[in-house]
Amino acid sequence: MENLTNLDLMIDPALKVPDENNEEKFLNNPIVTLGPITKQYLKSVKNYITDGNRFVFSDGASKVQISVISDEIIRVRMAPQGTFLADFSYAINPYDHIITEVKFTETELQYLIATPKVTCAVTKADFLISFIDRNGNLMSSDAKPMHYEENVQFGGYYVYCSKTCQATEDFYALGDKATEFNLRGKRQVLWNTDTYAFAKNQDPLYRSIPFYMSLNKGYCYGIFYDNTFKTHYDFAVESHDCTSFWSDGGELNYYYIHGPQMVDVVKRYSMLTGTHQMPPMWALGFHQCRWSYYPDKKVKQIANTFREKKIPCDAIYLDIDYMNGYRCFTWNDRYFPDPKQLLTELDEIGFKTVVIIDPGIKVDDNYWVFKEGKANNYFCRRCDDYFMEGNVWPGRCQFPDFTNPKVREWWGGLFQGLLDAGVDGVWNDMNEPAVFGSGSFPDDVRHNFDHHRGSHRKAHNVYGMQMVRATYEGLQKLQKNKRPFTITRAGYSGVQRYSSVWTGDNVASWEHLKLANVMCQRLSISGISFCGTDIGGFTGEPDGELFTRWIQLGVFTPLMRAHSAGDTREREPWSFGEPFESICRKFIELRYKLLPYLYSAFWQHYKYHMPVLRPVIMLEPNEQINHYREDEFSFGDSILICPVLQPGITNRKVYLPKGTWYDYWNNQKYKGGKEFVINTPLDSMPIFVKAGASVPEYPVMQYVNEVELEFLTLKTWYSEMEEKSIIYEDHGENFAYKLDIYLEKTITVRGTNGSFVMEQTMFGMYTPRYEKYEHIVYGLPFKVKKVVVDGKEMKKYSVDATNVLSFTTTKQFKKIEILA
């Protein structure tokens, strides 16, 4: 980082950087004319006003509002002609941010707005905005003044912001872009797009998440640019010393999020935009999907085969063929003559049913959903007041305006019939929105935008998010105290408050397996932890090896769903025969054993804003080599996942971060901070557990809650350092956890050469029904002579030939001492 001993010395005004039209201009040129386009740059600051924690600066025409949101978050807005738009956002989630102190100072050359953690500086002469940490390190600075140009076709403005880029600076997040994990040297576009069988580096994709992080010499900050119009990013492509973002309309409205660690930035971004609600426990099991399973006999055959082969599975999906002529909220009487009976039979053997819903409503005056929408003017209209129409699966369709609160409420109520039939979850698809032929809606379609009005240019990127919001809120209302499960293809920042996501229509290839690994990590640090991919690839034909390796990776993605297109061969876990079937079973069983660990990781996301998947760069940001390391990640606090992403290999290099690690399979101990070569036969994948971890495990079940738990297995790995693990439990399906009816347990361990101590503290009002812990302790460096639980020496314990200790305690233990 550049240390500023004098805050008045910010940026050389003669620094050359590119603008977004591929021509270089000097920064101190306030108006740049490029043919017919005139860009208006902010000029010198003429005046300012203060209002509590908000400060408005003006150059005589434009205004810039700088607001302190918290000690670590500062918001910047620009009004090109001095009038701000209504302050409304679908992304921002109410949160009680903490502001300790704000100081405003004026010097000869600039204005300073300071919190205890970060200072925002505005230079008077050229309106450049910078952010400096409390040690005087320059974190972020404008490369040139914010600027804009008038949009003569639609009204409003194109808005631009450029930041200086240091030689050692790298960039991350921006949702699930199908490219390398490090975004430096990339240009990206945010415009939700249906991209069937997308290729590596294809852009844009299904979601728009306008949040990125900068990492430079171990220091991290984030920029959340809350603009729903088509948005563009340039990460040091046009010029190695400049990063830019700009939009085709709306406000230049961004949040600077201070670190200094990457994990801090991710947590604070989640405070701004919200976290996933706790999912129903069954939603973390294995899901089986295909376009499509029909008729009902086929669905029952698939379900029964899972049970006969004893391959765990919790959910089966019905794609568009369950509908009558692809009409949403209907059933095809030919394929599903008695859906309630079918879903009851599935439920009896432990299957939840998830059905697809699309936004396109068939134009048919005999179709009750269309009649209701038409009667209440719930469908989108074009600028000349005709209804927007387009062809999708049902043929000629109209589309609800999900940015209208009345439409969302109506849409949510439509699910009553599906719920009455026994449906458990809803899959929202085609909601970019996708339209055959044209790709999406025309720009002139009008939207309510929660009474803030806007064209489709403004509403496009939030359309899918508001659709799944309507779905989620409808299910929540109709299901009373039952947690909804939803999944969506399209979304915008904040969509995590309403849904899980998957990465879209991928391809059965090793390249896409690598992309799956990167895209889920990127989503997780972009606020969307409940994510997954179509295991095996949606289109194309995987062989048994590729499918098996994808299952292995899928065990450690929060959403684990296999899915495939109807023109491909079936790909259930048994579809490739042996040995692949047995290996898939082994790993799916591992997923079910680790469910209490994954559930606890979700609690840490919901309560403490921690991402479930954490890339190695988040664990060790100071190691420059990790800036490009993308094939490993931490699954929750304690488990490092090193997937096999190439065919035919029998070993791979694994980097273990600093500290002590244990091989999950054989408990071999490793000292981290370097690479190791680990064997990777097809029936294995490198998995490592951090020393000091306490990992809860269930017995293998065929579906969640198949049997009543008699005990919880608690596996603990020895550590000389003090380490803590969180174990979370609740009812698993209702919202009682919001009333503190849950149990959060902290297991603290520490060891010496002659002892190992485990302590448990508990908070909450939930009481698990099991009574015992079955303890297994690995890595003890001494022979066990005594085990003392809450001051009483145990008579029964066992130590095997590898010095693994096993014993049983009550679930209420407070302190265990293992002594040499």
UniProtKB/TrEMBL annotation:
Record keywords, A-Z: Glycosidase, Hydrolase
Similarity section: Belongs to the glycosyl hydrolase 31 family.
A biological-process GO annotation: carbohydrate metabolic process
Record-linked Gene3D superfamilies: Glycosidases, glycosyl hydrolase (family 31), Golgi alpha-mannosidase II
Gene Ontology molecular function: carbohydrate binding; hydrolase activity, hydrolyzing O-glycosyl compounds
Domain Glycoside hydrolase family 31 N-terminal: 64-234
InterPro entries, sorted: Gal_mutarotase_sf_dom, GH, Glyco_hydro_31_AS, Glyco_hydro_31_C, Glyco_hydro_31_N_dom, Glyco_hydro_31_TIM, Glyco_hydro_b
Domain Glycoside hydrolase family 31 TIM barrel: 277-601
Name by which UniProt lists this protein: Glycosyl hydrolase
